[in-house]
Amino acid sequence: MDSSASVVLSSPCAKLPNLEGNHGNIEKGGVAPFIDSAFLQKQSQVPTGFVWPEADLVSAHQELNEPLVDLEGFFKGDVVATENAAKAIRSSCVSHGFFQVTNHGVDLNLIKLADDHLDKFFKLPVEEKAKVKRCPGSPYGYSGSHADRFSAKLPWKETLSFAFHQGPNPVVADFCKSKLGKDFEETGRVYQKYCEAMHNLALSITELLAISLKVDRMHYREFFEDAHSILRCNFYPTCQEPSLSLGTGPHCDPISLTILYQDQVRGLDVFVNNIWQTVRPIQGALVINIGDTFSALTNGMYKSCLHRAVVNSQKERRSMAFFLCPKDDKVVKPPEDLLRIEGMTRKFPDFTWSDFLRFTQYNYRPDETTLQKFSNWLLSADNNKHL
Question: Considering the entire predicted model, what is its pTM?
Fold first, then answer.
């Protein structure tokens, strides 16, 4: 499947085969496919489809003491500062795949402006938001609680996702203008600039990751230069019974690298040392976490971060996640230098991002075991051909 922006902007929703049944899709009598924050905030009790298993709802009673990596020295070419940043990153990625960065070079005014534009879309009437609904099998567009895909363990949130890649055409700005109209032209320009800034930061992070792994400094940067990435805007409304539901369930991101802006409302938890730990929002900092695809690019040496989002009854929460993804046809495999340095044998077969993306959209609901199950599927005798 081609997940490039051109498909989103010019093609209708494609009907693709369902690989393993409906994996919890909506059926007759299920939850309506368009459930937005206005509906959720009116609920005095959590609807059945939004109730999560007790095992997923165990509260986090401890704050994560993750590395706060200052990137200023790295950007200035300071060798010692770069080595210190790489060491901190390596320690966290071997353990749980999560850290935060400061002095990251992204204009804080741009981040604030992008945050200000979130409400402009999410406060629209649901019928307006539905005009840019996500197509089956695509990660792009609007989704209300993923109710178009599932009928149980629904997340207490709504999302708007954009495709992004570098090129002569401003794909995010064009999407907003063509799908949402003239009122959203400025919004499109803001998110276009935001994606460009995040793409540049992501490339710098991959350079630091390579340094931390002691492989060719430019290896991952060159791999992702022509990335086809995703920007996802998240809106978590208040919930009157937050102990029963989740904004996002426990999962590892299937993508390569996530750069997350979160507002000052707590809600992000990370699973470290076999317990859930809360992440304190730090003004001006950005959250970085490793996804499944980058974990595969390190042969599993760097952990894909298991995390979730909780909700509260007092205040809405907003976040913006930039997901760095390889171009569709790039073959995902670890560098030979890393295998030789660490004396490792291969843990995962070669794959392309388009195959993995399609697996997560049609075949399997992403969680902490997605990468391994995808690998097993690729290696199985019955499924030895790519999707």
Answer: 0.89
